[in-house]
Design a protein that fits this description.
The structure holds three protein chains of three kinds. By secondary structure, chain B is an alpha/beta fold. Chain B has nine helices and nine strands. Chain B has two domains: 164 residues, Rossmann fold (3-Layer(aba) Sandwich), CATH 3.40.50; 75 residues, no CATH class. In chain B, helix 4 crosses helix 5.
Chain lengths: 303, 247, 290
């Protein structure tokens, strides 16, 4: 009887020491791409080490996992993905790595929209959704590391506050632009949520791709579309030939905007190293291009 | 007109002419003869100024002498898309330069030159439609237009029919009558004896330069043949060297 | 209806008009350079030049980064150097132009590839160098028009010696005119025209518009001045037709223009009024039946 009690005491003390020791080691987290990785870093702080599979400036749609990814995932405690069909290659990776840990679908519960008959996976472009993402991540981390749950929650709420500030600022800036000027053409389908949130009309550039040489029909159609829709800013990054882009913009009466970050953060040296930076930068770029275009249109008659 | 001093010429990596000495008198009609490979074409090349002597000199009097040079036909693009008129009119380069248009004077000179060489009516024909004989007549017409005091002809009657040869010899006679200096590289010794008062017999070295009857003596000819047989690089007198190209 | 097909695209869009103007300017220079190039048996020089620009562009890139001007200038200098060196070889030795050009441009290309990979392997280099006819800006128009003017003007000056150099090199030399100088001048003009074309229209189109109309013209006339006129006509038709094809059938513009030029060439080979296949056959039949 006493031996049993002593054994139980011994085991309890041991596990207490063990779990305390375990609490010192950061959680090994693998995130599917940079935006989610940024959030995990924000919420997790020192309690996590996180690495994104799809790196900065890379395209998650066409990502091909490398052997290193398989290895790292196998050794990870937690996998955080976007979901909504964004990472078509993830299930195979999970299978081949034999991953045993926990998975968080960070987009669980966000408000979605449709794109081409399917769910648009770029839900993070709506700041309200971004808050949901971050809270999901916090909840997931807390379930694995309950002792740190308070810290996770604190960081999360501070971050959500920043998101709300950013949203307010964006609404102010964009609200100052007349509705009919908020027409933008991009090459990505990635900005649907942003367009919905702030009242942009978003057009996708059809018929021009990087790989093949452009046709006169493609260029003509694009110009026509820009003219008919009174597109003010053009963000067509996949026309490698900048001269062509300039020509199309000029003839259509639009301004060539800078670069927009859609599916990934930029490198640490770029203006889009974190989610907040990226979002601020995108808004500023959009607003700047539209304002420049409007000023130019006032200076010359539209043709 | 032309003084040659101790002239040595090289061609194709070997010596073509050695120690040539003599004077070309103004108004003379000289034939240059000798075995194949004797350096005859090379000599003409040097006289025109297209080949620099290894040693020795060629003095021209006057120094800016205009020379009407007719090289062997092989070098020309016979199918170039111009007309006979345009080809012949090129002879008036000294009057027209690189940019002046063909004027009335040149036009009539060209037409009368064509008449003189027996190519009346050929003015608008394409070069590619001419026979070898007709082409040679056209080239003679070009030389006519050049109005040059010194005329050098490199094997002008090679593979040309008799009729054309006779017509063109008439032109040479006319040049001689006009007191132009004419030098022609020839193979037909009978022709030389008949038409050319002066002769230069060359076998890489000078065998004889002077009156034809003296230069073309049996001894000289034999000597030339003998020298030629000792060259290890060319076929004997009378044969063309196959595959030789002057590029 | 015809108006809609042929004219409306040009009336509606400035980029179509600019493309046509740029092509016309290029064709003016090409129509004279092309037939002469072919007569001098230097037709493949055009393609070689497209590769020869690489080392120059690479050096320009290494000196001044992705600057269009430095890379273009480097490209021109490299191409001209290749042309001059090859010409020196072909005039100074028994080797002909096709061999000397072939050899020298390959060396230039290899140097270019080496430089590009040493300096960081930017394939974007070439994307920057070679434009598309649908994106002709004001600079491009000035470049092509200016180049054409220089080419035509210079050709007018050296036309006669150039012809004689093709026709009878010895004769030209006997007149005391430097055939080498004329030849080099000609080659430099070809390079300038090509490189201007690369910048504004891309490689395929620039070389294509130089060679194909001129090659086709030969089957319609044997007079030199008529050759130039026919080459110009075919060049303009190819530009106009190709742009319309690209517009109505949604195909890339550069290849479309070259293919129209190619079709004209094929038609000329088969049924042109001078020495075409059809005519030669008919002539043979006529002889057989007499």
């Amino acid at each position: 009887m006493i031996r049993m009690a002593l054994r139980a005491l011994f085991l309890t003390v041991l596990s207490a020491i063990g779990s305390a020791a375990a609490d010192e080691v950061p959680l090994r987290v693998i995130a599917s791409f940079t935006i989610v990785a940024d959030w995990v870093r924000v919420v997790g702080g020192n309690e996590v080490t996180v690495r994104p599979l799809v790196g900065p400036d890379a395209d998650a749609h066409v990502y091909e996992p490398a052997p290193r990814d398989v290895r790292d995932l196998a050794a990870a405690d937690l996998l955080v993905v976007n979901g909504l069909g964004f990472e078509g290659w993830m299930s195979r990776l999970v299978q081949s790595s034999g991953f045993q840990g926990h998975t968080i679908e960070a987009s669980h519960g966000v408000r979605t929209r449709a794109l081409n008959g399917k769910v648009d996976p770029h839900a993070w472009q709506d700041l309200g959704n971004a808050a949901v993402y971050v809270r999901n991540i916090a909840a997931g981390l807390a379930s694995l590391r309950p002792t740190a749950a308070d810290r996770f929650r604190a960081r999360t709420e501070a971050y959500v506050h920043e998101l709300e500030q950013l949203d307010l600022q964006a609404r102010n800036e964009i609200g100052a632009i007349p509705r009919e000027q908020r027409v933008v053409m991009t090459s990505h389908d990635a900005f649907g949520y942003l367009a919905d949130a702030y009242g942009f009309t978003l057009l996708a550039a059809q018929g021009i791709s990087t790989e093949s040489e452009p046709s006169a029909a493609g260029v003509g159609n694009l110009i026509r579309e820009i003219r008919n829709n009174h597109v003010h800013a053009l963000f067509v990054e996949n026309i490698r030939n900048t001269r062509l882009m300039d020509r199309i913009a000029q003839e259509g009466g639009a301004t060539v905007g800078g670069r927009l970050y859609s599916d990934a953060l930029g490198s640490p040296q770029s203006p889009a190293a974190t989610f907040l930076q990226m979002y601020r930068y995108n808004i500023a770029t959009l607003v700047g291009a539209i304002q420049a275009s409007a000023a130019g249109a006032r200076a010359r008659p539209h043709h | 007109m032309l003084r040659v001093q101790n002239l040595t010429l090289a061609y194709d990596g070997r010596m073509a002419v050695q120690g040539l000495q003599g004077t070309l008198e103004r108004g003379s009609l000289t034939a240059v003869v000798g075995p194949n490979g004797a350096g005859k074409s090379t000599l003409l090349n040097a006289l025109v100024g297209q080949l620099r002597p290894v040693t020795g000199s060629i003095e021209r009097d006057p120094p800016q002498l205009r020379i009407g040079y007719l090289p062997q036909q092989a070098d020309m693009d016979r199918h170039f898309p111009i007309t006979v008129f345009e080809l012949v009119a090129l002879g008036a380069w000294h009057a027209l330069g690189t940019t002046k248009k063909v004027n009335e004077r040149v036009r009539s000179d060209t037409l009368s030159a064509l008449q003189e060489v027996g190519l009346e009516g050929f003015a608008e024909r394409r070069l590619g439609t001419l026979s070898v004989g007709q082409m040679q007549r056209a080239l003679f017409a070009r030389v006519l237009l050049m109005d040059a005091p010194l005329i050098l002809l490199d094997e002008p009657f090679n593979a040309i029919d008799t009729r054309t040869t006779q017509d063109l010899i008439r032109v040479i006679r006319r040049w001689h009558a006009e007191r132009r200096t004419v030098v022609a590289v020839l193979h037909d010794l009978e022709q030389v004896r008949q038409e050319f008062p002066c002769c230069l017999l060359l076998a890489r070295q000078l065998i004889g330069w002077g009156a034809t009857s003296e230069v073309l003596s049996p001894q000289n000819l034999a000597r030339a043949r003998h020298i030629a047989e000792n060259w290890d690089d060319t076929p004997a007198w009378g044969e063309r060297c196959p595959g030789c190209s002057d590029v | 209806m015809l108006h809609d097909i042929l004219l409306t695209p040009f009336l509606e869009f400035a980029f179509m008009r600019r493309a046509l103007v740029a092509c016309t300017a290029l064709c003016l220079g090409n129509s004279v350079l092309g037939p002469l190039l072919i007569l001098r048996r230097m037709t493949l020089v055009g393609d070689a030049m497209a590769h020869a620009v690489l080392p120059g562009a690479a050096v320009g890139f290494m000196i001044a980064g992705l600057s269009l001007w430095s890379m273009s200038l480097g490209g021109v200098l490299a191409a001209v150097s290749v042309a001059v060196i090859a010409s020196l070889i072909s005039r100074g030795t028994t080797q002909r132009e096709d061999a000397s050009f072939g050899a020298v441009y390959l060396v230039a290309l290899a140097i270019g590839v080496l430089l590009v990979s040493v300096s960081g392997g930017r394939i974007d280099l070439l994307h920057l160098l070679f434009g598309t006819v649908l994106a002709v800006d004001n600079e491009g128009l000035i470049l092509v028009a200016g180049t054409s003017t220089v080419v035509l003007f210079t050709l007018a000056l050296i036309y006669r010696p150039l012809i004689v150099d093709c026709l009878d090199r010895r004769y030209l030399a006997s007149l005391g005119v430097s055939g080498m100088a004329v030849h080099v001048a000609f080659v430099v003009l070809v390079v300038l025209n090509l490189v201007a074309g690369f910048q504004v229209l891309g490689t395929l189109m620039s070389v294509g518009l130089l060679v194909l109309p001129s090659a086709a013209a030969r089957f319609w006339t044997t007079r030199l001045d008529a050759l130039f006129a026919v080459a110009l006509l075919f060049g303009l038709c190819a530009s106009f037709g190709g742009l319309l094809l690209s517009y109505h059938l949604d195909v890339p513009s550069g290849p479309a223009i070259v293919l129209v030029a190619g079709s004209l060439y094929l038609i000329s080979v088969l049924g042109g009024s001078c020495d075409s296949i059809l005519l030669t056959r008919l002539a043979r039949l006529k002889v057989k039946n007499t």
